[in-house]
Design a protein that fits this description.
The complex is a heterodimer of chains A (391) and B (70). Chain A has 391 residues and is of the alpha/beta class. Chain A is 41% helix and 21% strand. Chain A has helices spanning 7-13, 32-40, 44-55, 60-71, 81-88, 93-111, 133-153, 156-171, 195-216, 223-241, 249-264, and strands at residues 124-126, 129-131, 274-275, 278-280, 291-302, 313-327, 333-347, 350-363, 370-385. The chains are: A alpha/beta (391), B mainly alpha (70).
């Protein structure tokens, strides 16, 4: 018996094109990137990279991925999760389209009195033309809604054939041979390669060995070096995968790691202390510590209330990631060194921005106590000021 | 694992990642001229994507079918 034609098969044969579907096999998470890759005939890895890249912009990649998962039917299915849900509550695509047009039109009308699209800040400017982003998306929504309705209304052949096939199937009658699509061949999937798992394992082992060596040999290993070991293992895995096995997913992992790895390469400050915001306001010389350390956050060291002391004050302070603020008495005698892995340095009115900053500042007054400060920031900002304002 | 024809995307990406990893391991990332690193990385990634997105021989063979599908 010849199987009745389905709407999916009809679309494949009537020239309306391939359907965008989520992969159900050979996928990493939900099959969205794989499905998009199949549809556009590009390597799904590139789509995944795109999603990951967009993840860095406020999590847009995650939102788009979820939207894709909700709107794309899975392989072997005709309806997406959203379509199935709407079908269950009786909302047809046409109704949904009109509702979308209505909602977006209301939105558009409601925002327009707030100002024309050519004035005010926060507008998208393309050359001399300013476009309100909200208005832009509103118009885009209307157009998409209209196209959705139009698409559904102008495909009677598809609907007709599908309906006829449905009737034929219900009646147990075979559809005409002319309407029968050729049998679909399942996509050929490559066997999965264990190389990527070898890559992950080697990353963990390399990082673990490096940590052990640093403990046993008492060698200080910087965070960037741990990431370096991880990237080295991933690179080796990829080079091996160029000829043996397949491990392109490691490219994605590496792209995720690279920004963090590069940033961590600038963290040369000691990884000591806790995380959080701390404010120290010593009043007597005995309360002044030799060292103030923090892993992350803001450390404010206010020395303006410190009573006079005959001896110099030596302080070493560091924050691995964050802000380090030192407030000195007005006109104090100072001798300081500031090091910044990546970020800003504001020292008594002078500003420096960049990477691997190392500066010294000396202002000595004879017969006056001197503050000898060694300040270090991995990534962030160091401020040395005479004013409590803003702190 | 079986041997397959050379996958240049994996090779180029692997060498780039390997190089960066070794640089970080040596602790030399702080000496990089950062004003050149950003553009270089962008150009490299762009070239890699262009290379990866080029039509493969398999895809070219299937092109007539894809055209018929609309």
């Amino acid at each position: 018996m010849i199987e009745p034609v389905t709407s999916q098969d009809t679309q494949r044969t009537d020239g309306t094109g391939r359907r965008l579907r989520r992969r159900t096999s050979d996928r990493v998470i939900g099959g969205v990137a794989g499905g998009l890759g199949d549809y556009f005939n590009v390597d799904p890895l590139l789509i995944r990279i795109g999603f990951v890249g967009l993840m860095l912009f406020g999590g847009a990649g995650l939102v788009l991925y979820l939207v894709g998962w909700l709107l794309m039917p899975a392989e072997g299915q005709d309806m997406s999760p959203v379509e199935a849900l709407f079908g269950r509550i009786g909302l047809t695509p046409r109704r949904i389209g009109w509702i979308a047009v209505g909602l977006v039109a209301v939105l558009f009308i409601s925002i327009f009195p707030m100002g024309g699209p050519f004035d005010g800040s926060g507008y998208l400017f393309i050359g001399p033309l300013g476009i309100d982003p909200v208005a832009f998306w509103a118009v885009a929504g209307i157009v998409v809604g209209y196209l959705l309705i139009r698409r559904r209304e102008t495909s009677p052949a598809t609907a007709g054939v599908a309906a006829a096939a449905g009737v034929a199937a219900a009646a147990g009658v075979a559809a005409t041979p002319a309407a029968v699509a050729p049998p679909r061949t399942p996509p050929v999937r490559r066997p999965r390669s264990p190389l990527a798992w070898y890559g992950y394992a080697s990353v963990l082992i390399a990082v673990g060995v490096l940590a052990l060596v640093s403990q046993v040999a008492e060698v200080e290993v910087q965070p960037g070096q741990f990431f370096g070991a991880a990237l080295t293992m991933l690179g080796i895995g990829l080079v091996v995968g160029a000829w043996w096995g397949r491990a392109r997913i490691l490219i994605l992992v590496a792209i995720l790691l690279v920004p963090i790895a590069i940033l961590s390469g600038f963290i040369t400050a000691p990884l000591e202390g806790g995380i959080g915001d701390h404010r120290y306001t010593p009043v007597t010389a005995a309360e002044v510590r030799d060292e103030y350390r923090s892993l992350g956050g803001r450390v404010i060291l206010d020395l303006t209330d410190l009573h006079t002391s005959p001896r110099d004050i030596h302080i070493a302070a560091s924050v691995a990631v964050g802000q380090l603020v030192v407030i000195l008495p007005e006109g104090a005698s100072v001798e300081l060194r500031t090091r910044v892995g990546a970020g800003d340095s504001y020292v008594l009115g002078s500003q420096d921005v960049g990477t691997s900053l190392d500066s010294r500042y000396v202002r000595r007054h004879f017969k006056q106590r001197t503050y000898v400060l060694d300040l270090e920031i991995g990534i962030g900002e160091v401020f040395v000021t005479n004013s409590r304002v803003n702190w | 694992m079986t041997r397959h024809p050379a996958d240049l995307l994996s090779l180029v990406a692997g060498l780039a990642v390997l190089g960066l990893g070794l640089l970080l391991l040596s602790g030399g990332v702080g000496d990089l001229p950062m004003e050149w690193v950003g553009p270089a990385v962008a150009i490299g990634l762009g070239a890699l994507i262009l290379f990866a997105a080029r039509p493969t021989r398999e895809a070219s063979d299937q092109e007539p079918d894809a055209g018929n599908e609309g």
